[in-house]
Write a structure and sequence with these properties.
The structure is a homodimer. With about 350 residues, chain A is an alpha/beta fold. The first copy, chain A, has 11 helices and 17 strands. A 5-stranded mixed barrel of chain A has the order 6-9-7-8-10. The first copy, chain A, has a 4-stranded mixed β-sheet with strand order 12-14-16-17. Strand 17 of chain A pairs parallel with strand 15 of chain B.
């Protein structure tokens, strides 16, 4: 294992589309949403620990989730949990982690990834990441992982790249969630991939990119030099965060940088962004109902996704294509095709 | 109030069509199924107490429900709860109650009724029953209450009667749950009514009918004379019940008796036999969702029936024409048109 390999897991989201399983108190990444016995964060940490030494994996999350993070990852040190005092987008999160890691290891190569995605082909993932870390170690590049698109999904971002025979291709442009017609064209063209939201770079390359493309933010975090990895770190972060720009790494850096590259891969990835996207990853009964819960019975019911506690007895009769989720004292029953409305109704709660 | 007026409430059923609200431990008649604050049994008792002295209302139920009956009707005496040691049909239940009442009052006139029906027009009900009790007091007749049919319901029994101008008509025949074509003809003909399952007679008329039409059963209960209304009553009942024929009063007596009459009425009656039949009796939101439960939200959801605890938060999105019921640790979600399957699936539980 590469001793300069580091991981940064971004775990500060609220996951409001997964209500009522996911709530602000206990969001998606901390939930065993696939019924595997592990939360998505635990799965992500375990996956990364095959690539980086476990004590070199950092979790950036909200102060609100410090305790649950430590509870779910009992082997880690307190210093591996980086807490934001308030919600900002991914750019400040990555700037913070990068200054901290740079302070420890100026030769560090870093994989930055979300905490709440699914990857089913771990060995392919390991191979792709190892290859990317090697590329990042020797080149001044900002690498992103592209996923071979299997359908014209309008929920994903797309990466347009220069087609060559090399593993790493130059990125031409990023397109956020296109309409269906555009998505179909992208998929047909063969030179677009899905944006997985995973990045690999060495600490100096991304530091340089911040300095050039988000100079104000870079300056803000640079003022913390000497405080990272000391007892003064949290107080500094608490002080600097409120004035940080609320901007994503995609918009702030990746869409503008000249040295960005993509490596396309197929390691059974899903961003698990919607209940519908879980469907194919959950064991199904004869009626094609994806069931998490040990006491769920169905009669003439098809295509439903059910996520309930194991002890709950659920009987579905004649129900088709619904999402049925119970968590705590809340029950959601939603037609699959209407699930974009979940966010709308739960914002009022 | 007529001092010879007695009530017999039959409250031994299981109500399996109302799972999961209704369970064998806690069946339909003991549930506040309409969200009124009273169970159906409590409503029935209160209704009868406008007609009979409250201490002359008897509840016949299963031994299993003795305590819940006493708990729900705290004003009654222990002797008013008649307990069957096992499930038999309505004929033994009525024979038992009749021998007991006859022993107390040889001039008693008795209203026998189910415990789990809905009646919304109480004053009309009171008038019809008073009139019927008077008829029963002076005539040797077996009266049944017919309900003016408002639709060709195939879930009810029908009474064919001789049309006259009199309040009480001679019954020609009974037909159990006809097919739709037949039901349509019945309703169109104008000389059919729905069988409400309520009966009125004096103790001697029904005693004579048992003696003639169910002579063996009559003999069995007659052996208890001297034990009714004593400490020996329950032991006698426990001993005689197992050998009683399992037969309904309709099949055993009413379909065969010569002196049966019907009085037709319209007092807002429903047998509340199915979840669907509750729909119109429960307050509805703007989407036509009939809701029992204080925290139920719906978005583009129509025509559902929801029955959940007040503290349960339920969000329905895009759901149409379903029955959603939570009780204890069980949840039912069933398309309204499929509700006849509830019984099927819950029999296996």
């Amino acid at each position: 294992m590469d001793s300069h390999a580091y991981g940064v897991i971004m775990a500060g989201g609220i996951g409001s589309r997964f209500w009522p399983m996911s709530t602000e108190d206990h969001p998606k990444q901390f939930i065993d949403i696939l019924g595997t016995g592990q939360s998505l964060l635990q799965q992500t940490f375990e996956r990364l620990s095959n690539i980086c030494p476990a004590d070199q994996i950092y979790i950036v999350t909200n102060e609100q989730y410090r305790e649950i993070t430590k509870k779910q990852l009992p082997g880690i040190n307190d210093s591996q949990v980086l807490c934001e005092p308030m919600r900002r987008n991914t750019a400040p999160c990555i700037a913070y982690a990068n200054f901290k890691i740079m302070d420890l290891d100026s030769k560090a190569n870093v994989l930055v990834c979300p905490s709440d995605h699914l990857i089913t082909k771990e060995s392919v993932f390991n191979e792709v990441i190892s290859q990317s870390l090697k590329q990042a170690a020797t080149k001044d590049v900002l690498l992103t992982i592209g996923i071979k698109p299997s359908r014209p999904d309008t929920g994903y971002g797309y990466i347009n790249y220069e087609k060559t025979n090399a593993a790493f291709s130059k990125v031409i442009s990023f397109t956020e969630k296109p309409d269906l017609e555009t998505a179909k064209k992208f998929v047909a063209s063969g030179d677009y991939s899905w944006n997985s939201g995973m990045f690999i770079w060495n600490v100096n390359s991304i530091d340089k990119a911040f300095r050039e493309l988000l100079p104000e933010m870079h300056l803000q975090f640079e003022k913390g030099k000497g405080k990272y990895n000391t007892e003064a770190e949290q107080a500094f972060i608490n002080q600097v965060y409120p004035s940080c720009e609320n901007i994503s790494i995609d918009y702030g850096i990746m869409e503008k940088a000249g040295n960005r590259q993509v490596i396309n891969a197929d390691f059974g990835w899903s961003d698990l962004g919607t209940w519908g996207s879980l469907y194919e990853h959950i064991p199904q009964d004869q009626g094609g109902n994806a069931l998490i819960g040990k006491k769920v019975m169905s009669l003439d019911a098809r295509g439903n996704i059910v996520h309930v506690p194991n002890e709950k007895l659920v009987v579905m009769i004649g129900l088709d294509d619904c999402i049925v989720v119970e968590h705590g004292n809340a029950l959601l029953i939603c037609k699959k095709e209407e699930e974009q409305k979940i966010k709308k109704i739960t914002e009022g709660l």
